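Reading a protein record of the kind used here takes only a little practice. The integers have meaning only within a learned vocabulary of local backbone shapes. With that in mind, consider the following protein and its fold in token form:
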Amino acid sequence: MQHMHIHPDLRQATDLQAKAQQSSVCSGHPALNAQLPGGGWPTGCLTELLVRGLGAGELRLLAPALRRLAQAGKKILMLAPPQMPYAPALAALGLPTEQFIVIRATQSADRLWAIEQSLKAQGFGALLAWAPQQTTAQQIRRFQLAARLATGPVFLFRPLSEQHQASAAPLRLALLPRAYPGLGVHIIKRRGPVQLDPILINLPVPGRVMQQVNANPPANPQVPHNSTAVVPSLSTSQIKGLPHALDRLSISNPSPLHS
């Protein structure tokens, strides 16, 4: 059987590096690369990252790949992050903040719409999207279909409680905090053999990457010069009518944020 020739679009269940595997972006973590189909974060498909809560190290896990993409001039879309990206911490990870676009979407319906439209736009190096709590299997399937044309990795953050729910995402990882600065990555689903044991990764330690944002900021805040954060560049109202042209929208320079 091992010498049998099979169709190039098919693969054996034990073949982790199948010839038909899509391209990937190096994760920057050798132990993780060895267990990811294609040897890195896959492009052209959905990757689910399941977390118990904010601050498990999810952005530091992605930082090496995001840094490589940003330094190559690619834009990084962050869609509806639960807290505001903190510019000094991003810079400490080597991430150029001018390459980031933050899209605000507070309502679940707006967020679901914005994720799908962002995927159709295809004008990004990587997309990081935080799905609403009520995201259904049908909606995940729509995201996966839209992600098939993406040229960069697509990360969808979901609660760890959804790990037993059906999902069309080809790659699903549970992020499990370990002794600081460790992170356990449990591969729940992948194209290839089953991986039972979590992969232990030591993450870089630059400080907090996200900070709490005032839910009702003043209209004209007076900002101290020593307080810096990445401010949202877009809102869902700015995307409306431009479903395939996010890459053409202007990028605002990171500016101080009132705390």
